[in-house]
Amino acid sequence: MATSAKTLIILGASGDLTARLLLPALGQLLTRDPGRSLHLLGADRRQLGRADWLARVKGSFAEADAAGPAVDTLLAGTEYRAVDVTRPEELHALLDACTGTPVLYFALPPAVTASVCAALAELTLPAGTTLALEKPFGVDEAAAVRLNAELHALVPEEQIHRVDHFLGRSTVNNLVGLRFANRIFEPLWNNNHIAAIDIIYDEQLGLEGRAGYYDKAGALVDMIQSHLLQVLAVLAMEPPSTLGAQDVRDAKGLVLRATRLRGGSPVRSSRRARYTAGTIEGTRLPAYVNEAGVDPARGTETLAELTLEVDTWRWAGVPFTLRSGKAVGARRREIVITFKPASWVPAGLTGSHEPTVLRISLAPDLMSLELNVNSEDDPDLLRRAALTASFGAGQLLAYSEVLGAMFDGDPTLSVRADAAEECWRIVAPAVAAWRADRVPLEEYAAGSEGPPRWPSTAVAEAETDQANKPR
Ligand code: NDP
């Protein structure tokens, strides 16, 4: 695809995000799409010579097997500047060095990003300048509102990309395709037929040396406030008439505005825990509080769970449980949709009467529909069977999709200003209750499934609830 020339300015170019995710993605994008005209300008406070910078870029490109004419052109022209990016005159010089329309990528700690926005307010940005911001977007709803106001004073909303790489185009399209292109799902996609929805992202990895960021964020902000709420919004949205940016983002916004902690109670609808020492697949992990850089007094959770309600005609009464944990025994990245029990089963049929469950695995991209079917050797006996299929995983790395959309001016997958604020509003009661210690910080051994008393899904809760509140 031939596109107008862009200059990607990475602020925080010697950081982790740039090396591990942004540069490999850039290399992959240029390899797949050599028609793009791109200049890369790195800026960070670390002193790096051009040779060092080039070696870093090439190292990251090699991880994505990047090659071809567009890659060679970018490597020949890339520059690096050792600067304090919070200083207006340095930012001015960076913008002056652009050979194409600037795309400013804030690969910076959130507090530094806020200072850069203040510094940019002193400059006149070139027409068409795009701003790309990473999560977390602010530290609470008020900070997100302030940051949005500052950004809107710089460029229009369409030129602001609040990055959420979790929901790549293929994941969104897989969810939308499964639900809307199959008559057996969409008519059932509501509180008449669905008992509970769980969105789970448990990983086996522990802190991995990221205390500087994670110890201040925790599992709630790192995963639920950002990524998992985006999954909920896509899963629960009303049918968008197109997959264009406005339709999809309007539909997601409607869901997020109607979402809140279930029953308005952080004490009953949120849980938190922190891992103690344990073993995962033969590797010994220290307790979280003994990891380098962790301040135990912060009480940071490594496993968080919120049960939410989406207060709409479609979803009233259905618990949405969002859970994410580190150092958990089994990796689980899935959406579990548990249907209500069959309304009636003839008395002669014994065996499994479990409800139908649709599992959508997010990595790898698979689906499995779990049903009751009659046994091969006993037609009176029902057993569990699963119909499985795999989705396309997509051709591009998640960050290649992010960068490609940014260069093409397509904000569909970016988080819109209102959604960024809503996501903080949704989690705020839990954050406040956790800070006030109204919800206990439980413990689980690294390598376990979490605290022993936590059921693995919301189904149990949904069943209890249904007993009290039949629909
Ligand atoms: P890092 O700390 O690794 O990188 C940030 C870089 O910015 C560092 O090199 C830092 O320099 C530099 N920097 C800080 N202040 C200034 C300044 N005033 N002028 C110039 N350079 C400065 O952070 P990450 O790369 O991990 O994260 C960046 C952002 O991306 C964060 O918002 C994070 O939440 C987000 N993110 C990160 C992911 C990851 O996997 N790393 C994944 C998803 C999002 P110094 O080292 O000297 O402080």
What does this protein structure show overall?
- Residues 9-174 form the Glucose-6-phosphate dehydrogenase NAD-binding domain.
- Keywords: Carbohydrate metabolism, Glucose metabolism, NADP, Oxidoreductase.
- Residues 178-453 form the Glucose-6-phosphate dehydrogenase C-terminal domain.
- InterPro entries: G6P_DH (IPR001282), G6P_DH_C (IPR022675), G6P_DH_NAD-bd (IPR022674), NAD(P)-bd_dom_sf (IPR036291).
- One of its GO terms (molecular function) is glucose-6-phosphate dehydrogenase activity.
- This protein is an alpha/beta fold and 471 residues long.
- The protein has two domains: 6-134, Rossmann fold; 167-395 and 416-468, 2-Layer Sandwich (Dihydrodipicolinate Reductase, domain 2).
- It is built from 13 helices and 19 strands.
- The chain has helices at 16-32, 50-63, 69-77, 88-96, 110-120, 141-152, 169-180, 211-236, 245-257, 266-269, 398-407, 417-435, 459-468, and strands at residues 6-11, 38-44, 79-82, 101-106, 130-133, 160-162, 194-202, 259-261, 270-276, 278-280, 283-285, 303-310, 320-325, 332-339, 350-351, 357-362, 365-374, 381-390, 441-445.
- Strands 7, 8, 9, 12, 13, 14, 15, 16, 17, 18 and 19 form an eleven-stranded mixed beta sheet that branches. Strands 3-2-1-4-5-6 form a six-stranded parallel beta sheet.
- Strand 1 (6-11), helix 1 (16-32) and strand 2 form a beta-alpha-beta unit.
- The longest helix has 26 residues, at 211-236.
- The chain is globular.
- Residues 463-471 have low confidence and may be disordered.
- NADPH dihydro-nicotinamide-adenine-dinucleotide phosphate (NDP) binds at residues 12, 14-17, 20-21, 44-46, 84-86, 107-110, 112, 134-135, 213.
